[in-house]
């Protein structure tokens, strides 16, 4: 029977951050194609689990103006074929101005997500502003000490080119996002950071850049719920991508 991830099992779990340390950063054990599954009902039982993994939105952390954090676990059902390799994604959102949050408030939710059964790693999705970078670095370093699973991040394309502020951070993978790009970003932007060269993030509904030679994992975003025809179209597009 196909697997169904049930998010009602996200019960509060508290881990002692000081009791677990890790001296190395393992990589993701994932296929070369990974579909992002966002907050909506997704039936992905049609994918080929031998060649395709799934990075599903497992929760959203909302930073409030007063610096407190509202954590919302996923509520929509996700159906997968047996044996599908999965990464749990946590999206962090923040208003333009807010007090600096305490990292412990966010870590509580991240640890619960990382502890989900059959999840191979954690991916953090946060378009951190300049003023939020110190906080974000603290969160990354702390969650790496709290879980033995790989921790990766999505990255603005500019973070992998001239503004390489994540270089040296203890992350398994940084995925440069070549869609919904910002004002100072271009699809022709070069990827200079070593931690960004192994993966790339693309969207079904946008133009793709020239295929980087070093990329071995492609993440695909779909602005609507995935269908079999969308999946087959992505496989064909990747095969012909140059």
Nearest-integer average pLDDT: 86
* Rg: 17 Å
User: What number of structural domains do the residues give?
Assistant: 1
Largest sheet: 9 strands, mixed
- Shape, principal axes of CA atoms: globular
Broad structural category: alpha/beta
Number of strands: 12
* Through-space gap between termini: 37 Å
Query: Unreliable stretches, pLDDT < 50, 5 or more residues?
Result: 6-24
In percent, how helical is the residue content? Answer: 10-25%
- SSE string, helix = H, strand = E? EEEEEEEHEHEEEEH
Helical segment count: 3
Classify the beta-strand content into a percent band. 25-35%
Overview of the molecule:
With 242 residues, the chain is α/β, with parallel strands linked by helices. The chain has one domain. The chain has three helices and twelve strands. Strand 4 (52-63) and strand 5 (69-73) form a beta hairpin. Helix 1 (103-114) crosses helix 2 (133-146). The radius of gyration is 17 Å and the shape is globular.
């Amino acid at each position: 029977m196909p697997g169904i991830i049930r998010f009602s099992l996200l019960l509060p779990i508290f881990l002692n951050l000081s009791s677990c340390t890790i001296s190395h950063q393992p990589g993701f054990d994932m296929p070369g194609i990974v579909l992002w599954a966002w907050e909506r009902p997704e039936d992905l039982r049609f994918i080929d689990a031998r060649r395709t993994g799934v990075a599903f939105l497992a929760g959203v952390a909302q930073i409030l103006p007063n610096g407190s954090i509202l954590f919302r676990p996923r509520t929509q059902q996700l159906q997968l074929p047996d044996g599908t390799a999965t990464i749990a994604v946590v999206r962090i959102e923040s208003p333009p101005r807010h007090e600096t949050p305490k990292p412990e408030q966010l870590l509580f939710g991240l640890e619960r997500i990382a502890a989900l059964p059959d999840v191979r790693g954690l991916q953090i999705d946060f378009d951190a502003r300049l003023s939020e970078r110190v906080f974000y670095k603290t969160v990354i370093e702390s969650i790496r000490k709290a879980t033995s699973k790989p921790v990766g991040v999505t990255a603005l394309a500019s973070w992998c080119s001239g503004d390489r502020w994540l270089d040296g951070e203890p992350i398994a993978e940084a995925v440069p996002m070549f869609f919904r790009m910002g004002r100072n970003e271009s699809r022709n932007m070069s990827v200079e950071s070593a931690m960004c060269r192994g993966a790339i993030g693309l969207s079904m509904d946008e133009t793709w850049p020239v295929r980087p030679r070093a990329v071995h994992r492609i993440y695909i975003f779909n602005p609507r719920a995935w269908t079999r025809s969308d999946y087959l179209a992505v496989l064909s597009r990747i095969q012909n991508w140059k």
